[in-house]
Amino acid sequence: MAGTSLFILISQVDTQYEFxxxxxxxxxxxxHAAPMRILTGLQPSGKLHIGNFFGAMEPAIxxxxxxxxxxxxxxxxxxxSLHDGPALLANTHELAVDFLACGLDPGKxxxxxxxxxxxxxxxxWILSTVCPMGLLERCHSFKDKVAKxxxxxxxxxxxxxxxxxxxxxxxxxxxxxxxxxxxxxxxxRDLAVxxxxxxxxxxxxxxxxxxxxxxxxxxxxxxxxxSKSYGNTIPLFGEEKQMRKLMMKIVSDSTPVEDPKPTxxxxxxxxxxxxxxxxxxxxxxxxxxxxxAGYGSYKTQLWEAYWNYFTPMRQRREEILADPGYxxxxxxxxxxxxxxxxxxxxxCIRKATGLSR
Length: 357
Ligand code: ADP
Ligand code: TRP
Hints:
Bound molecules: adenosine-5'-diphosphate, tryptophan
Number of domains: 2
Shape: globular
Structural class: alpha/beta
CATH class of the largest domain: Alpha Beta
Oligomer: single chain
């Protein structure tokens, strides 16, 4: 793994905390007095890629031993881009297998499907009653998706409110996400504050986003932000030959082999940093600066680092796939535990709003 990783904590006072890789190497700082509740969600809208891994999954897996972890599959959210029942079901299962293969430990984290706790929709409604239109109109993610031709339906517009409900329903303190979700976390915080002003301080817990600065935006094979919707992803798991071929497609320029290569904004270096040791990364940087090697050889090194990094996870994935009932059992257990927590928060808020006595 690369050297020092820096996390940015989005809270009232932006604070930076430093702790090193690899996974579980060092305890994160205590950010909250009580056991910290950590929550994150991933949409089953396509194959998981290394941007998802370094932006959200790896920090979540690392944090699962340091608090009360709640990780879920955001299948309601995926419906904003996917209206194909069998595909949604298949993606949901695959995401569960892949997250578990990467190290999510159901003995430590509550792992569940969003739709197994339908109460989240009730909280989303309550939040929407205090949510100004302007707050949602300003969301980049909505504007970007519409610009890309996705239908501007109500669910797409209200997406951040449902996301806020996901987070607030579980009294979450810390939400590990990639940088693109920063604004959604700000909306969540705003809505929690508005509810607390309306219904009493402490009704909802105001969460912090945890954004890894060094992997905030993982580049795709075209050098832009890696994203399922840009078709530029490197999946976590794939067939060896295809993955190697994909790696060779990573964008580079036409600098001749013998010349020094630009290091700034290099997708190859940006990706290699994620997988290589600090020393190996620095060696590649130096080689770029010296010249004398072609991009093909750097891509081969990157390929090897990537393939080796995910080898233990690929093996674990095979074991999970060989045990057909395992994933469903994990998700069922997770749903029971998640629902128990959710019902406590919802009971309080139902009373506070006057929906029930
Ligand atoms: P995608 O953009 O591929 O559809 P999602 O929106 O499902 O990905 O994102 C799931 C999680 O992965 C989020 O926390 C998001 O911030 C993170 N993430 C996605 N792409 C990247 C990236 N290129 N770099 C860092 N984090 C990312
Ligand atoms: N919007 C997130 C994404 O696109 C997925 C998500 C839904 C989420 N609900 C969440 C992430 C709650 C963190 C917390 O990646």
